[in-house]
Amino acid sequence: MKTIIEPFRIKSVEPIHFNTETYRNNALRDASYNAFLLHSDDVMIDLLTDSGTSAMSSAQWAGIMLGDESYAGSPSFYKFEKAVTEITGMPVVIPTHQGRASEKILFSITGGKGKVFISNTLFDTTRANIEFSGAEGIDMICPEGKLPTIPAPFKGNIDIKALESYIEKNDAAHIAMVIITVTNNSGGGQPVSMQNIRETHKICRQYSIPLYIDACRFAENSYFIKMRESGYADKSILDIANEMFSYADGCTMSAKKDAFANIGGFLALNDPELATKCRNLLVITEGFSTYGGLAGRDLEAIAIGLYEVMDEHYLQYRIRSIEYLTQKISAAGVPVMLPAGGHAVYLDAKQFLPHIPVDQYPGQALVCALYIKGGIRCVEIGSLMFGKYDENHQLIPAALELVRLAIPRRVYTQSHIDYVAEVIIEVFEERNQIKGMKITEEAEILRHFTAKLDFV
Ligand SMILES: *Cc1c(COP(=O)(O)O)cnc(C)c1O
Q1: Using a 6 Å cutoff on CB, does residue 254 contact ligand 1?
Q2: Is pTM beyond 0.85 here?
Q3: How confident is the model over 168-180, as pLDDT tens digits?
Q4: Residue 440 is part of a domain; what is its CATH number?
Q5: Is the domain of 264 the same as that of 380?
Q6: In this structure, what DSSP letter does residue 189 have?
Q7: pLDDT tens digit string along 107-162?
Q8: Cβ neighbours of residue 10 closer than 8 Å, sequence gap 6 or more
């Protein structure tokens, strides 16, 4: 087979600001060893997130110019609505400024004290919005999803047996909904199979529990289904997405992911009564129902991006670039989540830095080392992000200590990725010199965004 090439040419470029290791040491110290507090022009390769960092296409930029900024009834909204409904099959489409705004609206209505939300894995903002409403979020990832370095095709699946036994032991009426996150961002960007979604749907139907999809990476998940699940090889991405959404009562989506937009999101629903309640909240928090928190030009860019992301040449290149980086570092002995996920490479920091105990945040120590060594910015997905304290203020660690290198869509070329692999391998060879970390200041919710740290 020939090399899989980037399925685009580059028309406009942004310079990378080169700096030195000494400079980066100082910059990181000034940022209190929290990569979120770095100035992005001090970063050479920014793999902090794939959210809102995509390169838009010439067609999307042309759409930006076509955007109609009417307060109500903009043609840009109807184009957006048509795209979302065509993909999800859901008649109600509520635009929001990003995914978490959809979550806030939906959970304010369906959540509250005593309610439970069950998921394969809730993303951090999703969990935070659930907990902020007073409800509880429970993750039920399948057993293979808990083993970071053992390959399996659908490690994002929800644990069907655990779900059933939970429902049998508890009152189903307290379960606000089941949320399937595709792909499973916090669990390694691993896909969820169609069979798993179908079975979850059956159980939810049986107990009258609504099923929602956190659809941020619906196209990447659809591509994995096409590649790995029998019966889907000849189906189009749109057909697969349609089937996936057909099992759900609604979905939330961040258009900053699989829509190539720099901002935006939506909530799509089947239930018109719930839709009315959501729109009432929308108008006081986001805006009127035909623009939500968005400008007309954003609605245009998203409507176009939602179709571009379903292009199979794009998805082949996308999934292959993540796999390429994963294989390259794995071959050098770096402990990395296997198989490669859809949007990011996940290093297993516990195995990478076995000399650093979990209460010294090995993931964050690795994040700092990669920045200092190569100017690469990435994010810890471990006990800094998800850790809690017990009554004695002892850390209750997260299940996994991961470092995520999220690859922005259509932004970096193969030589950037080769450079990233070289830096990771160099840091791995010098891993014994890396020191553990402690938190010196933290917020109560989503502490990883603002926490200040230092070396122990
Ligand atoms: C990004 C993301 C969200 C939140 O979307 P924002 O646009 O960042 O608010 C929710 N769920 C998942 C799985 C995500 O990746």
Answers
A1: yes
A2: yes
A3: 999 899 999 999 9
A4: 3.90.1150.10
A5: no
A6: S
A7: 999 999 999 999 999 998 999 999 999 999 999 999 999 888 889 999 999 999 99
A8: none
